[in-house]
Write a structure and sequence with these properties.
Elements: H1 2-13, E1 21-26, E2 35-40, H2 41-46, E3 56-57, H3 64-91, H4 98-108, H5 114-117, H6 130-141, H7 146-153, H8 166-181, E4 186-198, E5 205-210, E6 216-221, E7 227-228, E8 234-237, E9 239-241, H9 247-252, E10 261-265, H10 271-280, E11 285-289, E12 306-307, E13 341-343, H11 346-353, E14 356-359, E15 371-374, E16 378-383, E17 387-400, E18 405-415, H12 423-446, E19 453-460, H13 468-476, H14 478-484, E20 485-490, E21 500-505, H15 510-517, H16 548-553, E22 559-565, H17 580-586, H18 590-610, H19 620-633, H20 636-641, H21 647-669, H22 675-686, H23 716-728, H24 735-757
Parallel strand pairs: 7-12, 9-10, 10-11, 11-13, 18-19, 18-20, 20-22
Antiparallel strand pairs: 1-2, 1-3, 4-17, 5-6, 5-16, 8-16, 14-15, 17-19, 21-22
Length: 767
């Protein structure tokens, strides 16, 4: 038997039979002391037949190689057990801490089971679902006193806060400290050096001139308000009323405005558009006033402010950022006016009407004092002495970083500066910004909310001068922002009324907006905000004055802006009466409406940062393209006469439709738990808007390159307007320009389709 055992060990370790040592303890027969006898087993076996005796033996001790072998077997067993166990943990939803159990198993040398160890481990918090997050958001917002926040923002130390002023800077530091207090992941600022226009040392004036030689002068007003970026000069001429100053208003006039000053009502379109329309017809100056019918302000001498730059950002660094180290040669935006512009009080306008003749049309629905044009031998002299001023502005930022994709973010922003108190203009939006930052930080730190993507909170300066702060930020990071920022939510003027809920947005966000309106109730009538299935047709186009406009039209980032408002404009915007007292008189339920506005924005933020798939409905652009093709098809005969065809434009639209269908199929077939695949799909989705920026025009010369929402000859609307000229006035139609417009529009749409299709080998077209 001993030989067999030795042979087995020998074969196990690949060696020769080994000898071992035996210790024996034997007592002498005569009672002498015992002695220890040590023999090699080989020797003992040789003499076994000759010397047999009774002995007591101690347990045998294996040599080092046997011990190491046995130890290795045990280690291999434990490693195999842990690998198998951890693999099991990855395949099931973990209810206990697998690592802790594996360590326990290693320490005890025993197999650990989840049932046995559950009481000794800390379970992971369960994933929060949409209802959980929505209720958490609503509950936290319901405890906030938004009016108190507005009061903090409108303390004397922060009012008035014109861009770049010490009070604007102080409010910026206050917001920066608040972001830090809320424990956002990072708080920072960026600085820009911009040029704005302010009132000069000499007063602006509006003067009546009369008499055969026009030498009798009567000062009507030295306005307290002004229009930034007006040309500084003096002009004299007849005065003609052009209603709101829209293109149609000018077309309907019976008297030409060539060589005359124009007076227009505030509203409907921006100051810059009114001025551009007047200048295009060779008017020499523009006066703007607020009539009592549209702006029912009791005081007739209220001054007001605006700007005349047909664009956004610093007009003296068009298309590039206003950083201090920028060393471009002097340039200016083509959107700056070449004529003087001035606001005038209603009282001053009525004095001018007293020297004019011809009643205004009833269809204008304006004050009875309104008159159409200057009486004979009566003129108006306008003097503007505005001057340029270089200032430093600061944008303030804070971020809640995403837990899985921190390099993808939604931006939430509000204007901080204002001419005058600016409660409705900037304090409402800034209060919403601060409270949303506080709420979402609390949800992350204490509520278990773990957004996949990041949320950036931005406080912009110089918004009153045409979204300057926001635009300069976009220009400064033009090459990268469209790859990272996928939505902008604008909070400016979110509550200036009660009855209506209005939205301006990219089509990519329509589905998200609709779902949100179906979840949120109006605080007054308690009805859901979603009341009209045809609400999309009522979505308003972004105006130049909306800070969301440059995000969409310049950077190709989907944007949304919304407000609770009335049918008429809020009368105190851009005046020195934009106070909390006036706003609460107009909107008695201001606090409740701000809470609901915060809930709308908050639900946008949760949906966009928490869902695996980006909640951007790229298929909505199929409808926009189809609608455009219908409009263009009306001119098919004209296009055929020029020897052109719409075939390639139809083909590009078809390719875009097929690309969206393929992307939808890719999403449905994708493994939702595969983060790499989902990120690739989301990358394709978030670039849809960007690829509608025309690559054939310069951001410097035509900054708003979006073919749907931008401005310039490259846009689809400009192409249609050009075609209409061929029917109205063939002499004004430019055949070469139109051919370029059609070709470049076609290739922009085709490029968007190709980008959406994915990899180059997946693109299938006939070009």
């Amino acid at each position: 038997m001993m030989d067999q055992a030795r042979s087995a060990f020998s074969n196990l370790f690949g060696g020769e039979p080994m000898s071992y040592t035996r210790f024996s303890l034997a007592r002498q027969v005569d009672g002498d002391n015992s002695h220890v006898e040590m023999k090699l087993a080989v020797d003992e076996e040789e003499s076994a037949d000759n010397n047999m005796r009774t002995s007591v033996t101690k347990p045998k001790r294996f040599n080092g190689r046997i011990f190491c072998g046995a130890f290795a077997v045990i280690i291999f067993f434990l490693i195999g057990f842990m690998i198998g166990y951890l693999g099991y943990c990855k395949r099931v939803e973990p209810k206990v801490n697998c690592d802790t159990m594996a360590e326990a198993a290693a320490d005890n040398g025993e197999k650990a089971y989840p049932e046995q160890e559950a009481d000794d481990t800390i379970p992971e918090p369960p994933r929060l679902y949409w209802e959980d997050l929505r209720n958490m958001l609503s509950g936290k917002l319901s405890t906030i006193d938004f009016l108190n926040t507005i009061k903090q923002l409108n303390q004397d130390i922060y009012v008035p806060r014109e861009a770049g002023s010490p009070k604007d800077e102080s409010l910026g530091y206050f917001i920066e400290n608040k972001f830090s207090e809320f424990k956002l992941n990072k708080v920072w600022r960026d600085e820009h050096y911009i040029k704005i226009q302010v009132k000069g040392s000499a007063q602006n004036s509006v003067t009546l001139m009369s008499g055969p030689d026009g030498k009798m002068a009567y000062l009507v007003e030295n306005p307290e308000g002004y229009v930034a970026y007006s040309k500084a000069t003096t002009v004299t001429g007849k005065l003609i009323h052009a209603n709101f100053g829209t293109k149609k208003d000018f077309e309907d006039l019976k008297s030409p405005v060539n060589g005359s000053l124009v007076i227009v009502r505030a509203g409907k379109i921006t100051f810059a558009e009114k001025v551009a329309n007047a200048e295009s017809l060779n008017a020499i100056g523009v006066l703007i006033y607020m009539d009592k019918t549209k702006y029912p302000i009791v005081k007739a001498d209220v001054p007001f402010f605006g700007h005349a730059h047909l664009g956004t950002g610093d007009p003296y660094t068009p298309g590039f950022p206003s950083f201090n180290h920028t060393q471009f040669p002097p340039s200016q935006s083509s959107g700056l006016p070449n004529i003087p512009v001035q606001t005038i009080s209603r009282q001053g306008a009525e004095m001018l009407f007293g020297n004019m003749v011809g009643e205004c049309p009833v269809s204008w629905r304006t004050d009875s004092s309104c008159r159409m044009q200057s009486a004979e031998n009566h003129y108006v002299m306008l003097t503007v002495n505005n001057m340029l001023k270089e200032i430093k502005i600061r944008n303030i930022f804070g971020v809640i970083k995403g837990f899985e994709e921190p390099d993808r973010y939604v931006v939430v922003g509000a204007q901080r500066d204002a001419w005058g108190p600016g409660v409705a203009k900037s304090s409402v939006g800034t209060a919403l910004l601060l409270e949303l930052a506080r709420t979402f930080s609390d949800m992350v730190l204490n509520g278990g909310f773990k957004p996949i993507r990041s949320i950036i909170f931005a406080s912009w300066s110089a918004g009153d001068f045409g979204a300057v702060g926001a635009t300069e930020w976009l220009e400064g990071y033009l090459a990268s922002l469209h790859l990272k920022a996928f939505t902008y939510i604008n909070l400016d003027k979110a509550v200036i009324g009660t009855n209506n809920f209005k939205v301006s947005a990219s089509p990519l966000l329509y589905k998200l907006i609709e779902k949100t309106m179906q979840n949120v109730r109006h605080p007054v009538n308690l009805k859901f905000l979603y009341q009209d299935s045809n609400w999309v047709s009522k979505v308003e186009k972004f105006s130049f004055d909306n800070a969301a406009f440059p995000f969409l039209a310049y950077s190709g980032i989907p944007a949304v802006s919304f407000c609770f408002c009335e049918d008429n404009d809020y009368p105190y915007l851009n005046t020195n009466m934009d106070t909390l007292e006036m706003l609460t008189q107009s909107v008695p339920q201001l606090n409740a409406l701000m809470r609901v506005a915060a809930e709308v924005a908050g639900q946008f933020m949760i949906k966009l940062t928490y869902d695996i798939e980006l909640d951007l409905d790229y298929e909505m652009y199929n409808n926009k393209l189809l609608s455009y093709m219908r409009d263009l098809n009306q001119f098919r005969a004209d296009i055929k006469e020029m020897g052109l065809s719409l075939q390639w434009l139809y083909s590009a639209r078809g390719d875009f439709f097929r690309a969206t269908s393929k992307l939808t199929a890719d999403f449905h077939n994708a493994e939702k738990t595969n983060r790499f695949i989902m990120r690739e799909i989301n990358n394709r989705i978030m670039k849809v808007e960007y690829h509608f920026l025309s690559p054939y025009v310069s951001p410097k010369d035509s900054p708003f390159r979006h073919i749907f929402w931008g401005s310039g000859s490259h846009t689809l609307s400009a192409l249609l307007e050009h075609l209409k000229l061929r029917q109205k006035n063939n002499g004004a139609f430019n055949d070469t320009l139109f051919r370029n417009q059609l070709a470049l529009a076609t290739w922009t749409i085709q490029g968007a389709a190709n980008a959406l299709a994915g990899d180059i080998w997946d693109i299938d077209n006939a070009f």
